[in-house]
């Protein structure tokens, strides 16, 4: 399987230099990451929301090695929120954050990440929107969930992400669904060992459905992060069985993938949120998008062959 190979390449400085130097890379990256600055991303936000879509914004970047870099990541989100304030979109534009950007992996990282992310959550609440804590590799999750629980004491709308391929996730889903959390479920995009995660796609899909059922039957707000038509159809059926109205759950998909489906779901009255990343440190994010879906990799390779 190519996925694990690509994920390994996402941590390779040599591959980073090679991919970044390829002449065609920028035009392919632009498919998934439509801008590098706040000024470039604001027109994208305005265009997508005008079409009836909602957004969750991700300032890309994960290789944080100093507290100063973690503070710079915090400040980048605060700058984004300052611009969103003038657009008056409320929860139609929220933020997604990776705690690794806020210093989670540094010495004293749990406390540092909490201290850096709290001002972002406070600022988001002040303009009527929310923040979701993205899930990263399994070694970071206990810290992420603890920070999520702490933030929800003052900001109960703070969301978090769970990953279907991890064995622990069904238990996490039951806990989160019971306490009324906003929860995004995804399949998972990190290379995890067989000791902690399903490796077979069919097993991951089965786990995804089991977890969706837990979330739909719980008291929280499910956010279905998938491009898979079959899983989307199952989610709609589970929501119907649970008696959920269309505004009591939502779908989330990545910018640049299945754009027509984004619009179709929104036209049917569903809340459809587009995960939209921007920034200059795009490499890790981009490589995980290639690893998640073979069609993305084929698109990139074909572009390099025909236009490189």
Q: Helix- and strand-based class?
A: alpha/beta
Query: How many H/I helices?
Result: 13
Regions with little confidence, pLDDT below 50 for 5+ residues: 303-308
* Total strands: 8
Tell me the helix content: 40-55%
The termini sit apart by 25 Å
How would you sum up this structure, described in words?
This protein is of the alpha/beta class and 308 residues long. It has 13 helices and eight strands. An eight-stranded parallel β-barrel has the order 1-2-3-4-5-6-7-8, surrounded by seven helices. Strand 2 (93-97), helix 6 and strand 3 (131-133) form a beta-alpha-beta unit. Helix 1 (2-9) runs antiparallel to helix 12, helix 5 (67-87) packs parallel to helix 6 (109-126) and helix 9 packs parallel to helix 10. The chain starts with a helix and ends with a helix.
List the topology elements.
Layout: H1 2-9, H2 13-21, H3 25-32, H4 38-50, E1 54-59, H5 67-87, E2 93-97, H6 109-126, E3 131-133, H7 141-152, E4 159-163, H8 169-178, E5 182-186, H9 201-217, E6 221-225, H10 229-241, E7 250-254, H11 259-267, E8 271-278, H12 283-292, H13 294-307
Parallel strand pairs: 1-2, 1-8, 2-3, 3-4, 4-5, 5-6, 6-7, 7-8
Helix pairs in contact: 1-12, 5-6, 6-7, 8-9, 9-10, 12-13
């Amino acid at each position: 399987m190519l996925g694990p190979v690509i994920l390994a390449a996402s941590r390779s400085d040599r591959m980073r230099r090679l991919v970044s130097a390829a002449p065609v890379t920028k035009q392919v990256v632009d498919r998934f990451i439509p801008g590098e600055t706040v000024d470039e991303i604001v027109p994208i936000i305005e265009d997508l929301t005008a079409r009836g879509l909602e957004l969750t914004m991700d300032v890309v970047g994960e290789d944080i090695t100093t507290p100063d870099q973690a503070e710079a990541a915090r400040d980048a989100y605060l700058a984004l929120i300052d611009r969103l304030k003038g657009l008056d979109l409320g929860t139609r534009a929220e933020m997604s954050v990776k705690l690794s950007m806020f210093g989670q992996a540094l010495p004293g990282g749990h406390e540092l990440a909490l201290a850096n992310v709290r001002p972002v959550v406070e600022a988001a609440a002040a303009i009527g929107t929310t923040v979701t804590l993205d899930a990263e590799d399994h070694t970071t999750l206990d810290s992420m969930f603890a920070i999520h629980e702490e933030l929800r004491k003052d900001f109960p709308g703070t969301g978090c992400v769970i990953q279907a391929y991890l064995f622990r996730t069904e238990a996490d889903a039951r806990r989160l669904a019971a306490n009324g959390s906003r929860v995004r479920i995804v399949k998972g995009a990190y290379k995890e060992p067989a000791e902690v995660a399903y490796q077979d796609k069919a097993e991951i899909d089965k786990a995804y459905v089991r977890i969706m059922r837990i979330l739909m039957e719980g008291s929280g707000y499910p956010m279905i992060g998938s491009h898979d038509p079959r899983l989307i159809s199952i989610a709609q059926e589970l929501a119907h069985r649970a008696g959920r109205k269309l505004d009591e759950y939502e779908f989330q998909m990545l910018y640049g993938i299945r754009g027509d489906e984004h619009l179709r779901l929104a036209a049917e009255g569903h809340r459809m949120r587009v995960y939209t990343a921007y920034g200059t440190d795009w490499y890790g994010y981009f490589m995980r998008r290639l690893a998640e879906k073979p069609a993305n990799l084929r698109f990139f390779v074909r572009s390099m062959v025909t236009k490189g």
